[in-house]
Hints:
The protein is of the alpha/beta class. The protein is about 30% helix and about 15% strand.
Amino acid sequence: MRPPYLLLDVDGVLIPFPDAKGASPATHTRHDVVPTGRDPDAPVTIWLNPNHGTLLMQVIRTGLVTPVWCTSWRQDATTLIGPLLGLPPLPYVDLPRPQITTSHPNGYLWKRDHVDTWLGDAPAIWIDDDFTSLDHTWATERTSRGQATALVQPDPHLGLLAEHLVEVLAWAVRLPVTQAGAASVTGGAEAA
């Protein structure tokens, strides 16, 4: 029986956006990484909080959720971001690379339709900094259909905080055992 999914975004969650002065939180450490397909002579600078790995591992070890990357970093989250945080390899939602100029081309987060298909009937809690009110409505509607869904939305300039993970665990323990241990899911989720 698989626990509900914990969908994890990276940008704005684990890698906060700079504040108005261009600064990242003092808790974060600089890393230069080379994403897939990028010229090794042109790495990308990212800022990660080394404590996030410990906090996420505490959540993972509870067995209450099944962590999955849900980010435009795709597999690079598993091969680049996770190791810098001391995380084991995690599956990821293989999101498309849409040609969009906004993250909300239809008024809601561009990832949502892909995630909805990937999840099928599986319960999930999703941490992302970029939800709109339409995404929150989607989560409420999924939940009302018996597909428990919750959204956690960190401030993109602060990123993930311990209280967000407390919220994840509090949500997971409230699920009925049949949902928290859903064995049969449809779509891409069963392969994760």
